[in-house]
Every structure is written in structure tokens, then in C-alpha cells.
Amino acid sequence: MEALADIRQRWLAWRQASTNRAIFGAAVTIAVTTLVVNTATVVKDIDVASVFGISDALDVFLMANLIPTFCISVLAGSLFTSFVPVYIGVRETGDAGRARQLLANVTFLAIALFIVTAAVLWLADRWVIALIASRFGAAKQSRAVGLFDWLLPMILMGGLASFGGSVLNAQKRFALAGLAPIFPQVMVVLVLVLAGNVADPQLLVVGTLIGSTIQLAVVSWGIHKLGYSLVPRWHGMDEHSRRVITQYLPMIGGAFVMSATVVVNQIMAAWLPRGSVSALNFAGKVPTMINSLGAAAVGTAVLPFLSQQVAVGDYAALRHTVRTYSRLILGVSVPVVIIAILFARPTVAVLFERGAFQRQDTDLVSEILRCSVLQVPFYLLGTLFSRLVSVLRGNRVLLYGAIINVAINALMNLILMRFMDASGIALSTAIVYFVSTLFLYAYSSRAIRKRVSAG
């Protein structure tokens, strides 16, 4: 035990030697916790593939889950990049009372937004499913509506848990925030096993809801241990709350449009032959796992430090940090992509080919995977540059860029899916992230030059 304590002290001392080391240390912590969560996700996906295969039942759940997941990503994900820089700025002044007041205000607004969103979707459930699953038959649509209504509470629980994770990250408590999302994955597997691995999509809904509830409870406990709280209280509109809202509104628009690429992809996959939604989902597991690992490690860890460098006007350090992690991203991700392409089929076979998932399913999914994994370097670089644009207060630019991306995505989908089916949708996504990365790099470079000249 003494040896472990000594190693921990040496590690903490090494991390505190410089900003880049601190970012690297945070990134390692986040990467490890994300890897643990991803491992649980892989176990869940293996079990789901074995029970459901590429089937109508899984297609129904995926379409029902699409909009609630999209809402959490957009509404709660946008809070991270709009709340954290303002919160850290308040905290750095040493006024803990104002920091708590800001947290209480934003929590109040977030909960109100999540509840209103869920209520509106509940009132419009049949219209929403008819819109996103227009090629489904009447019985299939009706089943999707039922699952959709059951999943709507996840917007509140999952959204608040995600926001709570942002608070923990702002306090540099990356480990707990990174591990909390493991509970929905674990509970889906547990519910399926306890139910005898019956191919009933309602079981996926039950496991997801229970897991999201536990995730929220764990995050709330972690925040409470730090002396803060996710209990909503409205203290009135102040300057800091107004700044969060000002940054949040364009950010939510950008996140809505950017995340819409996932929605568009899944909707257009539903136009293709039966099981295409499931196949695209399974093929996306590998790049999603890589992206989540890299984006969580780089994007989450780097934001507090970029915010701090911009706050003190240290643009030389800012440039150095961005260059360092851009090279690191390319140096790690490009070899990973090459390996994933070369070993696509055996990877899919090892992960999924059992039970209801047959050999012909492996052929289809591995073909889509080869195209899908091309997105990885551009997704990770785009995550880094979007964080940089955000701290430079260029969130409106993120909105404009996202609109362009959705237009390109829809157009490329229409062209490529004619020749490549679901593989064309996967390739289109890679093209979108490439264009997005170039756009964000050009803007952030120009913005930094302007600030240096003005300074």
C-alpha cells in the first residue's frame, strides 16, 4: 500500500509541473474511465447482438431511442461548453457563494428545459415517429411510439446526469464523471440476463431507464461531496447566468444541427432494406468507441485549461497546447484507423457473430465499418478545435459550421447510398467531419491572430 501511495504522489507531482502535463494527466484519467465504460458498452452490444441480431425488433428500439438520446446530447452536451468557462471564471475569483448561486440557477433552467422538452415530445409522439420512421409499417410504427413514450423520462434523468458530469469536470474530478455512464450499459445487460435473453425491445428500455437513474444518483452524490448541489434554486438573473445563456443559445443551435447528422443518418438508413438501421448501428460501435475514448480524454480534459489560458491572455501557451494535442491525435488515430480497416471482418466476427447475429450479418457490418472508421481522426481534431472555438467565444461560428455540415451530410448520403447502401452513409459521415475540421481550424487560427494583434 505504501508503494502505491508513493506512486500516486509522484504522479500527482509530475502532473502539476506544467499545464500540458496537467492536461495529459487529466486526459489519461478520462481515457482510463472511458475505456472502462466502453468495455461495459461492448459487453452490452455483444449481448444485444446475440439476442436481437439484425432485426425489426432492434430497429424499432433504435428509432424510438433516437430522439431522446439526441435531446440529451444537444441540450445537456451544450451546457458543458457554455457553463464550464463561465463557472471556472467565477470560481477563480474566489467567490464560492457566487459559484454555488450560478450552479443553482443553471440547474433550475436545465431541469425546466428537460421537462418541457419531454412533455412536448410526449404530446407529439406519433407525429415524431411517423416523421423519423416513415418507411416503417403501421404495426412497427405503433410499437416504436410505445417505446418512445417510455424513454422520454430519460431526457430529464440522463440530461441532468450529463450536466452533473460537467460540474464534476469543472472541478477536475474527471474519474467519477467518466465512470458514471457505465450504469445504463450494465443495467441493460442485467435486465436482459434476468429476463432470459428474450428479444423484447421493452427490456432495453427498462434497463436504460434504471441505469440512467443510478447514474444521476451517483453524480449527485459526487457533487454533494464537493460541497455543491444539483438542487435547483432560482436566485434571479445575474451577469454570470446571463453569460451562460448567451453562450448556450447559439451552442444549442450548433449542437442541434451538428448532432442532426446522426438523426439524418439513421432516418435515411431506415429507407434502405430491412435491418439497415441495426447494421449501421453495429458498424458504428468501433468508431464510436474510439471517438468517445479520444474525445472524452482530449475534449473534456483540455477545456478547463484552454479556458484558463484564454482568461489570462496567454496565447503563446494556447497555440502550443493546441499544436501539441493535434499532433498527438493524428499520431495515435491514424494507425488505429489503418488497423481497424485491415481487421474489420475479424473484429465484427469476434464481437458479434453468435446467436441471432449470423455470418451474412458479419459481412454487411464489416463492410460498413471500413467506411465508418475513416471519420476518427477528423472527429477527434474537430472536438479539439470546437473546444478552442468555444473558449474564444465563437459559438455562433459553430452554429454556422454545423448547418453547412448537415447540408453536406444529407447531400452526400443521397449520392453515396445509391451505390453503397449503408456503407455510403458511413463514408458520408467521414467526409462531413473532414470538412468540419478544416472549417474550425481556419476560424480558430484567424481568431487567435486577431486577439494577438489587438493585445
How would you sum up this structure, described in words?
With 455 residues, the protein is mainly α. The protein has one domain (17-454). 85% of the residues lie in helices and 0% in strands. It has helices spanning 2-15, 19-52, 56-92, 96-123, 125-132, 138-151, 153-170, 174-179, 182-194, 201-225, 239-269, 276-283, 285-311, 315-342, 344-352, 359-372, 376-391, 395-420, 422-454. Helix 3 packs antiparallel against helix 4 and helix 3 (56-92) runs parallel beside helix 10 (201-225). The chain is globular and about 60 Å long. It starts with a helix and ends with a helix.
Question: What layout of secondary structure does this protein have?
Answer:
Layout: H1 2-15, H2 19-52, H3 56-92, H4 96-123, H5 125-132, H6 138-151, H7 153-170, H8 174-179, H9 182-194, H10 201-225, H11 239-269, H12 276-283, H13 285-311, H14 315-342, H15 344-352, H16 359-372, H17 376-391, H18 395-420, H19 422-454
